[in-house]
């Protein structure tokens, strides 16, 4: 079973990343789903989505949980029955979760691709990236910023929050592997740590509310 990477962020926060290489039948072995999740799985038309869904249940097992320990609130945010915090992500060949004892956390994995340059204006100010050396560097940095905002949005989980207007990821270099971010929304400010890593043409960003 290809557990790709485990990251101990702090003694109470852990990231688990899975590379989805198995068949759907292989991933289904040993996994017992709740009725709700079994129905969700049955309703997925894409085999890739079903494989990703099942691989996340293996990541739950790595963290000491089963599907029965997981539930979703009205906004679609995942929670654990024991009160610990969890965030989940799936992108093509990789899935990931972050689990924390007390901190609010979010995670996002994105495939790096030039498509992001076409939508950059929807979540950031593209002119800020003109000093970068080449298109590859721009794609990498934009993917990190998008991933950071996705991860933070998963923490905040409130409708109406705008990636462009309300979430500000502070300036960073690609070599930094970290940054900070702020949300300014409805008169309230909150801060978040941002950490990122790149592998196999993908970017993983995880965030912790400060």
Word description of this protein:
With 210 residues, this protein is of the alpha+beta class. The protein has two domains: 3-102, Alpha-Beta Complex (Ribosomal Protein L22, Chain A); 108-209, Ribosomal Protein L22, Chain A (Alpha-Beta Complex), CATH 3.90.470. It contains six helices and eleven strands. It has helices at 24-28, 35-42, 47-62, 115-119, 135-156, 163-166; strands spanning 3-10, 13-19, 70-72, 78-80, 85-91, 94-100, 105-111, 167-169, 178-185, 188-199, 202-209. The strands form three sheets. It has a five-stranded antiparallel beta sheet with strand order 7-11-10-9-8. A four-stranded antiparallel beta sheet has the order 1-2-6-5, with helices on both faces. A hairpin with a 2-residue loop joins strand 1 and strand 2 (13-19). It is globular.
Q: Sheet bearing the most strands, described?
A: 5 strands, antiparallel
Classified by CATH, the class of the largest domain is Alpha Beta
Total helix count? 6
Estimated share of beta-strand residues: 25-35%
Protein name: 4'-phosphopantetheinyl transferase superfamily protein
InterPro entries: 4-PPantetheinyl_Trfase_dom (IPR008278), 4-PPantetheinyl_Trfase_dom_sf (IPR037143)
Keywords: Transferase
Domain 4'-phosphopantetheinyl transferase: 105-194
């Amino acid at each position: 079973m290809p557990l790709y990477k485990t990251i101990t962020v702090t003694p109470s926060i852990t990231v688990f990343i899975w590379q989805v290489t198995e068949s759907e039948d292989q991933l289904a072995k040993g996994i017992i789903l709740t009725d709700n999740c079994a129905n969700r799985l049955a309703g997925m038309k894409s085999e890739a989505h079903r494989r990703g869904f099942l691989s996340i249940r293996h990541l739950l097992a790595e963290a000491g949980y089963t599907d029965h320990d997981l539930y979703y609130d009205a906004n679609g945010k995942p929670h654990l029955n024991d009160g610990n915090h969890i965030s989940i992500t799936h992108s093509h060949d990789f899935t990931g979760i972050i689990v924390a004892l007390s901190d609010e956390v979010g995670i996002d994995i994105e495939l790096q691709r030039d498509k992001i340059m076409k939508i950059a204006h929807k979540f950031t100010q593209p002119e800020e990236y003109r000093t970068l050396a080449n298109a590859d560097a721009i794609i990498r940095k934009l993917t990190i910023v998008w991933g950071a905002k996705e991860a933070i949005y998963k923490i905040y989980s409130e409708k109406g929050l705008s990636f462009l207007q309300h979430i500000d990821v502070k300036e960073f270099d690609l070599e930094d592997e970290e940054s900070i971010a702020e949300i300014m929304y409805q008169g309230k400010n909150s801060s978040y740590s941002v950490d990122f890593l790149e592998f196999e043409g993908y970017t993983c960003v995880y965030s912790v509310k400060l």
